[in-house]
């Protein structure tokens, strides 16, 4: 039977700035049922007059008792993200419903090598997979290809810079590349995935997350490189009003 999802109160216990416009929120959710890396939740805000607004956000870290983490990018003129990134303070509460999703997940007992391809804030559920691998002590090799506009838009910069045996990270910049970069700023291309990813003969599990256009382009490139369609899992997002 499918488990019925209910709204639960969630209290902010800590917040960390990731970029000038993105923030990671650590929330305590009593009786949280746990979740898998790659799942997401719905967040609901209720105004004093009873008006409600809700949006979906990926979980940024593996299950940790009653604690969950979300990384939220502020959307200009949005209804939910500006509050979460600019207004919400420790001790404030929102409502959480979830976890949601069962296809775009990585399980710690999985054995094939993993290729993660993230565009912008699409890194969030992929980071949950990286952290779940580390937490479980898994020896499954991971490769992350992370596409973003400019160096100052990196999420989890310090963590991804730290040595993590079995994890290789490649950065692709689309608007402004750092000084000395060998790759010019441009959209993701076939060579980027051929060099930063796994050969199709290794039969890796591929996870692609980001804006719709990015996900479609990356998935097409993986197919062109010979990756089996059933091994390519995608999660996309588009304009939602924030």
UniProtKB/TrEMBL annotation:
Keyword Iron: yes
Names of the cofactor(s): FAD
All copies of domain FAD-binding FR-type, residue ranges: 5-106
Lineage top rank: taxon: Bacteria
Signal sequence coordinates: none
UniProt keyword Repeat, yes or no: no
SUPFAM superfamilies: Ferredoxin reductase-like, C-terminal NADP-linked domain (SSF52343), Riboflavin synthase domain-like (SSF63380)
Record key words, sorted: 2Fe-2S, Iron, Iron-sulfur, Metal-binding
Name recorded for this polypeptide: Ferredoxin reductase
The organism of origin for this protein: Nonomuraea salmonea
Taxonomic path: Bacteria, Bacillati, Actinomycetota, Actinomycetes, Streptosporangiales
């Amino acid at each position: 039977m499918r488990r019925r999802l209910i709204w639960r109160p969630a209290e902010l216990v800590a917040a960390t700035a990731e970029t000038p416009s993105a923030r990671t929120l650590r929330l305590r959710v009593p009786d949280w049922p746990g979740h898998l890396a790659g799942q997401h939740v719905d967040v609901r805000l209720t105004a004093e007059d009873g008006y409600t607004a809700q949006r979906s956000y990926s979980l940024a870290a593996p299950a940790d008792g009653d604690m969950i983490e979300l990384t939220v990018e502020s959307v200009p003129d949005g209804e939910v993200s500006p509050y979460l990134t600019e207004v919400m303070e420790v001790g404030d509460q929102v409502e959480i419903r979830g976890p949601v999703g069962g296809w775009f997940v990585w399980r710690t007992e999985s054995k094939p090598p993993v290729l993660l391809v993230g565009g912008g804030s699409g890194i969030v559920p992929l980071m949950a997979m990286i952290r779940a691998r580390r937490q479980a002590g898994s020896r499954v090799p991971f490769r992350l290809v992370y596409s973003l506009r400019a160096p100052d838009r990196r999420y989890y910069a310090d963590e991804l810079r730290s040595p993590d045996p079995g994890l290789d990270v490649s950065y692709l910049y689309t608007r402004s590349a750092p000084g000395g970069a060998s790759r010019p700023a441009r959209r993701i291309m076939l060579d980027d995935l051929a060099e930063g990813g796994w050969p199709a003969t290794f039969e890796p599990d591929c996870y692609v997350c980001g804006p719709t256009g990015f996900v479609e382009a990356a998935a097409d490139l993986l197919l062109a490189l010979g990756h089996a369609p059933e091994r390519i899992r995608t999660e996309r997002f588009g304009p939602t009003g924030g």
